Amino acid sequence: MANRKKQDEIPAFARIQNYINGQYENPSSNEWLDNYCPANGEVYGQIPNSSKEDVENAYTAAKSAFKQWSQTTLEERSRILIKISELLEENLHRFAEAESKDNGKPVALAKEVDIPRAASNFRFFGNAITQFASESHESVGQDAINFTLRQPIGVVGCISPWNLPLYLFTWKIAPAIAAGNCVVAKPSEVTPVTAFLLGEICTEAGLPKGVLNIVHGLGTSTGQAIVEHPDIKAISFTGGTATGAHIAKVAAPLFKKLSLELGGKNPNIIFSDCEYQDMLETTVRSSFANQGQICLCGSRIFVEAPIYEKFKNDFVAKVKALKVGHPSDDSTKIGALVSKAHLEKVMTYIKIAKTENGKILCGGNKVVLKNYENGYYLEPTVIEVGSNNCRANQEEIFGPVVTIMPFESEDEVLEMANSVKYGLSATLWTNDLKRTMRMSNQLQVGIVWVNTWMMRDLRTPFGGIKASGVGREGGFEALRFFTEAKNVCIKY
Ligand code: NAD
Question: Which Pfam families match (predicted)?
Fold first, then answer.
């Protein structure tokens, strides 16, 4: 993403538009941004660089839709959300191909994970809202009863990142509208296309105009305008920790509700008593799925000393066999990274690791694919590090790069796992039940996987602690976030 351009200076190809009040429209500023295809490094379209005025228009549409939408029955909201889900499923191939082209991820992955999960988000919250209940408290001996209303907040803002574009965009939008809010949403400017296509699906599903408004543009202008808007009363944000900190500063004096899902540096802790083959296969996936660009990837691998050498050899052999290729090729396991800037950032960390005496066990180089020489490809990289204190173990790289190191004891590995500023997730490989419980209790994270990775049940709370965020998404947690609790006390 770069280069601001005026509309007249660019050819009218593959230009996407904002979706406001049920209509597609150009940005009022008439400013456009180039959109790059990571697989070949070429500009293949433009997106609006929306201004404050576009955000205001989106807000106005959302505000006028709120009165009716917040009073729409739960059954009707549910019906529309489930219809959106069905239409996404019917359009699976089109959406998966668009997601892959925009993001660089293998089409196969988008077909298997991203788009089905986006559809599940709508189906799940379409069902969940019909089961969402609030509490009542009988004040015994005082002839009074309290009950809690769970009311939609009004107009809310949803801002999402580029790594799982439609998946994370809809993970926010679905609970927000299910709960009766109207939304001003902004996808990442790096991967805007499936969010653009979603507008069409919502219209077809009969979502009333103004309930969902999608504005495209840079975080620092369009995103900032959403966060600063005095009447957008809640912000659900997923993205980097530094952006989250900035958003928190802007939102705090405006007293907005805030949900922040931020970066991670997740430990993958492997004990000798694990199911070895299952662990090995899953660890390859938890390291490199989506080019390692999943906030939940286990980027620091700690292996118990007795199996360290065996694991190192087997893991490196498997990683070397992963095919880096064009995202449309069915045999590709590692597609392109999302952008040139991101590729360069990830490569800088490989250099840093070398200067810190990290040993590159495999990978480390850019891959130049025939016919796609300008694509953003990188070999999956495994670095052996001598200490958890190095930058490669402390800072989020968010690419196809993992570190490995051995450990001797449970206490030692727990100390290393917790010695980072982040606290999103951890993966634990062991068959020892007591150890599982001890470790799960003490790991400073929001999510622990034991003998599995990224197995998701959408009813469970999702989110991190420390610099990985504030609040939880998922299930009723999300519906609670997108509603205000109001207590009514009746004396009889
Ligand atoms: P980012 O913070 O750069 O951008 C995320 C979104 O915020 C984009 O839409 C961007 O335009 C917008 N934005 C940027 N500045 C803004 C501002 N001042 N005001 C309002 N909006 C603004 O993150 P990214 O590079 O797109 O995504 C990668 C990061 O996201 C990684 O750190 C990753 O760990 C994190 N992530 C976290 C989770 C999670 O659930 N915890 C999930 C996926 C990704």
Answer: Aldedh
* Tokens linked to 126: 């379409």
Domains with residue ranges and CATH for the chain = 3-262+468-489 (3.40.605.10), 267-458 (3.40.309.10)
Q: What is the pLDDT of residues 335-376, one digit of tens each?
A: 999 999 999 999 999 999 999 999 999 999 999 999 999 999
Say yes or no: CB of residue 474 within 6 Å of ligand 1.
no
Residue identifier of the C-alpha nearest atom 9 of ligand 1:
188
Residue type, 479: L
Ligand 1 site, residue 473, Cβ cutoff 6 A: no
482: left (phi over 0), alpha (psi -120 to 50) or beta: alpha
Residue of 404, 400, 402 lying closest to 324 (CA atoms):
400
- Paired sense of beta strands 465-466 and 422-423, if any: antiparallel
Q: How far is the CA of 241 from the centre of ligand 1 (A)?
A: 8
User: How would DSSP label each residue in 393-415?
Assistant: HHS---SSEEEEEEES-HHHHHH
Separation of alpha carbons 445 and 425, rounded Å = 5
* CA 79–ligand 1 middle distance (angstroms): 31
Cα distance between residue 80 and residue 129, in whole Å: 12
Residue nearest to atom 34 of ligand 1 (CA): 263
Q: What is the pLDDT of residues 304-343, one digit of tens each?
A: 999 999 999 999 999 999 999 999 999 999 999 999 999 9
**What are 465-476's pLDDT values in tens digits?**
999 999 999 999
Phi, psi (deg, nearest 5) at residue 300: -115, 110
Distance in Å, CA 280 to ligand 1 centroid: 30
Q: Give the dihedral sign, CA 20/21/24/30.
A: negative
Query: Which of these, 244, 213, 172, lies nearest to 18 by C-alpha position?
Result: 213
- The answer, yes or no, to whether any atom of ligand 1 lies below 6 A from the CB of 223, is yes
124 lines ligand 1 (CB under 6 A): no
Kindly report the protein residue whose alpha carbon is nearest to atom 37 of ligand 1: 262
Smallest CA-to-CA distance from 56 within 178, 219, 232 is with: 232
Q: Does ipTM come in above 0.95?
A: yes
Is residue 12 very low, low, confident or very high in pLDDT (cuts 50, 70, 90)?
very low
Atom 35 in ligand 1: residue holding the nearest Cα: 239
For the annotated catalytic residues, the residue numbers are: 261
- Residue 227, ligand 1, Cβ within 6 A: yes
In this structure, the number of other CB atoms found within 10 A of the CB of residue 330 comes to 8
